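Here comes a specimen:
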Amino acid sequence: MQTGSFIEIPNYFTIPKPYLCKNFQMKFLQKTQFLLLLTFFTCLTSFGQVTIIVNAIPANTPPGDPIYIAGSFNGWDPGNAGYQLTKDTVNNTLGIVIAAGTGTISFKFTRGSWPKVEANANGGFIPDRTFTYGNGDTINLQILGWEDLSGGGGGQTSAAPNVSILSDNVYMPQLNRYRRVWVYVPPDYALNSRTYPVLYMHDGQNVFDSYTSFSGEWKVDETLNDLYASGDSGIIVVAVDNGGGARLDEYSPWVNPSYGGGQGDLYVDFLINTLKPHIDSLYRTRPGRESTGIMGSSMGGLISTYAGIKFQQTFSKVGAFSSAYWFAGAKAYQHITSTGKQADMRIYQLIGNQEGASYVADMHRMEDSLHAAGFGVDEVLSVEKSDGQHSEWFWAREFEAAYIWLYRTPAASTAIDPKLTPPAVRLYPNPVREQLYLKIDLQKTQKVTIEITDLSGRSAGIIFSDTVQAGHQKLTINLKNQGLTAGIYLCHVKAGNTEAVKKFSYRGE
């Protein structure tokens, strides 16, 4: 019989001697012993049922709302009648018994649907709860808040009206899990018939809404709405919630012995082969690679870089903020080398100097790996910010610059007089931190003007204007005091009635 976590093995049967010979008795006992030992070891692989007791719920819980448990044991069904908690009127608690099992289960409490899922005391997102069989048979818990109510702390959504939840439980067949998916559309989406580029983002809880965020939001909706008001045509953004305790596993295709990982390929397969076709069928997207990007921070930056390079036939734009390349170690860079360049890309990397020297070094090592793999200096932009920290406020502030560089078409360069041959110009180093050197081949002595603009055509000023002698000339331009921030710029070299335009990357101080 089974008692708690202990298994009691009974004595063998007592069999009357007249009915047994010695050989029969030995065979009987050996067979009985084998069966009992088999039963014993089978029982060791599973444990008894677990009783889950909820001792407290938020004061603002509607009195008539039933409370359910949804988890890995019931397909994450938020309102399954068989998993409604029962009220104990004597002890004033709620409880439910979950059947015997093995391993670890994940779960959350709801009031019948995912919009009414439990939350922290401020109404914000909480990771999945977990329980490992064998750690006792009763657990006592509290529900601190509800995402759709004030949560006991006065939480309130900050998402813009043009942000919606596609579903609270999009099924991920590759991982046999469910996940909430958010969608942002431009403010005028319903008023026109245009198609739009798409950006796929991770950690969806933190992208649009401080109410569901862990430690602040990216304010992607506010930023894009402000840009729309100033004339930007906009994009569609699809943000997938992280999986709480499964986040590290899903955001790395490689296993870190200390932290997990290894499910990244399954997660990316979900994005590309399940979610993207569904989004393309529901919304007016531009499904081609030239209009599709992927972006994330920390572990989300790692999986974005991995997915963007591995699936260049799907993505042409990668935003990798504060990427946790350390998690994968050398494998992250080897992946770039072994895959190589297969199509033109735009890869925007961001790091803050307050995140630690290793993060900064890792970003530039990735930059070097990308260049060595064949990606040009105009395809990779690595930005350092002296005040940057590993935090949502930093990523929110820098999102606009990344979006503009990734999604806006660079200003076309045209000669002042296309009938004349522009001067031959070579500039180096590229990327540059301070001194930019230009080698110019002039057929005659003439006035040369050098102007720096950003990719949208905004001028940073004329930094050189003087007469230059014919022949091979070398000019030195000091960028340190020009007021430039890290980014991609155009160097316009005007000689007489001609112009040559060269693109360069400025890393900043």
Notes: The chain has a mean pLDDT of 84. The two ends are 72 Å apart (CA to CA).
